[in-house]
Amino acid sequence: QVQLVESGGGLVQAGGSLRLSCTASGRTFSTYAMGWFRQAPGKEREFVSVISSTDTSTYYQDSVKGRFTISRDNAKNTVYLQMNSLKPEDTAVYYCAAKKGLHSRAYDQYGYWGQGTQVTVSS
């Protein structure tokens, strides 16, 4: 039902910024909660942020609060993750994911995933 394509990853120095984008196919994009997850080498996939289908509620992992901002543009079928003040510990593959209905912090509740984009933060 939903195909997700991510972009915007790359190499950045500590303290720098990146904006990740995830564009979805389909006319029902606005009905999905959209989440961002990340997975560092040797680590489990972890929740980063989610925005509700109504575009009124956002949630963040504690370690990124105040630095990352999630947003969506339903007219463009796109969700963004603006990442500021990046730290080396933010280095990971970042995935966007879509979930029909209510938002969730749990990765296993998301049925659609992007291919992932590498974010590397140098010290």
Characterize the structure shown.
The structure is a single chain. The chain has strands at 4-7, 10-13, 18-24, 32-39, 46-51, 58-60, 68-73, 78-83, 92-100, 112-113, 117-122. Strands 2, 4, 5, 6, 9, 10 and 11 form a seven-stranded mixed β-sheet that branches. Strands 1-3-8-7 form a four-stranded antiparallel β-sheet, with no helix packed on it. It is mostly beta strands and 123 residues long. It has no helices and eleven strands.
Compact summary:
This protein has 123 residues and is mostly beta strands. The protein is built from no helices and eleven strands.
- Reading the helices and strands in chain order gives EEEEEEEEEEE
Poorly predicted runs of 5 or more residues: none
Radius of gyration: 13 Å
Number of strands: 11
Integer average pLDDT: 94
Instruction: Describe the global form.
Output: globular
- What amount of the residues lies in strands? over 45%
Major sheet, described briefly? 7 strands, mixed
| Structural classification | mainly beta
**Count, helices:** 0
Query: Can you give the helix content as a percent range?
Result: under 10%
Terminal Cα span: 40 Å
Give the tags.
mainly beta, single chain, 123 residues
Layout of helices and strands:
Blueprint (H helix, E strand, L loop, with lengths): L3 E4 L2 E4 L4 E7 L7 E8 L6 E6 L6 E3 L7 E6 L4 E6 L8 E9 L11 E2 L3 E6 L1
Parallel strand pairs: 2-11
Antiparallel strand pairs: 1-3, 3-8, 4-5, 4-9, 5-6, 7-8, 9-10, 9-11
